[in-house]
Each structure stands twice: as C-alpha cells, then as structure tokens.
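Q: Convert this sequence to structure tokens.
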Amino acid sequence: MQVQALTKFVRMSPKKVRQVAREIQGRDANEAIELLTFIPRKSARLIHKTLVSAVANAENNNNLSSNDLVVKTAVVEEAPTIKRWRAGARGMAKPIKKRNSHIRIILSEKKDETDSES
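A:
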C-alpha cells in the first residue's frame, strides 16, 4: 500500500530542494527522518515536515507501522513562479523570478525477505 503527503507552494526553488530529496529516496522512513534532522539546510526542514506528515498519514489512516515504511519516491515539482522587477541600468527593468515548489513524498511498505524466499 502506498501513502503520500504533499506540501504545496514552498517558497524555495525546486533545484535546491531536489538536492536534499535525492538523499532520502529508497531509505527507511525512520532513517530518513533522522538523516534530515542533521542536514543544515532549509530544504531539509521542509522535506522533514512533509515526511513526518506522510508517516502520520500511514499510521492514522491506514494502520501501518512506521517501522515498515520505505520512502518510495520524493518528488519536487515546480510551482507557479512569482515575478518581480528590479531597476536596471539606463532606466530599464530587470526581471526577478522567485521560484516555488511542491514537495510530494510517497511511502510504501517494506517487502519481507522471508516471504520472497519461500
């Protein structure tokens, strides 16, 4: 069974968030939560918040144990960009793009090795 959590309109560029999201893919959920607490980046705090929400969704809505969960995918999608302008040389306006992102974390149950051997 798969469980997901989604954080939308995060005020951070997707490129920066993806660097941390790649680190947790394929790890146990508890191990990933522990890893994210030690990464000193804003994106790690945002992903940590989403991951804790996904684990809570699994425990409360689907009666799954947090010890049996694995981070299947951690996807960072691009959200609408806020466009601003800054004064440039010779009276021109220079564009500033403030990028946003959506963070989607999908958890799945761990497959037991004992079931696959028999």
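The beta strands are 2-10, 69-87, 93-109.
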